[in-house]
Write a structure and sequence with these properties.
Elements: E1 17-23, E2 26-35, H1 41-50, E3 56-67, H2 69-81, E4 83-87, H3 91-100, E5 107-109, H4 112-117
Parallel strand pairs: 2-3, 3-4, 4-5
Antiparallel strand pairs: 1-2
């Protein structure tokens, strides 16, 4: 009897990095979907490559549906290399950042526009009003 190999792989969903590029002088990476140890690599690459070349990197998290400790570790590592901002985190992601204490280290903004409107730290310009 000949057996076919089992295919235990799950179908690939949409990519976790939806888009990236310069917006108003900042580098923006738009993430989406579940961010865990199985899916984080494309986001890791996008943020890691952006960090050395940009004073401010904004992670648009408006379409992130789940994140685990691998995501938190990535945020910490990128924050050590550049000014990282998290834009539009949903309720679950905002709670995760608060629980981990990252909300005191990495700035979060209610919208992408608010994150883009705030001047870089140390620029001497006053922060933009909350959006």
């Amino acid at each position: 009897m000949v057996r076919e190999p089992l295919d235990n792989s799950t179908p690939a969903g949409p990519p976790v990095v939806a888009a990236e590029g310069a917006v108003d002088g900042h580098w923006v990476v738009r993430a989406q979907g579940d961010l865990d140890s199985d899916t984080i690599d494309p986001l890791f690459i996008a943020l890691w490559e952006a960090a050395p070349g940009h004073a401010v990197v904004v992670l648009d998290a408006s379409a992130v549906t789940f994140a685990d400790s691998s995501f938190l570790s990535l945020l910490i590592e990128v924050h050590r290399r550049t000014e990282l901002r998290v834009a539009a985190p949903g309720t679950v992601l905002a709670r995760l950042l608060r629980t981990a204490g990252l909300d005191r280290v990495i700035r979060s903004y209610p919208t992408l526009e608010a994150a883009l409107g705030d001047p870089p730290r140390g620029s001497g310009a006053p922060p933009a009003p909350p959006g």
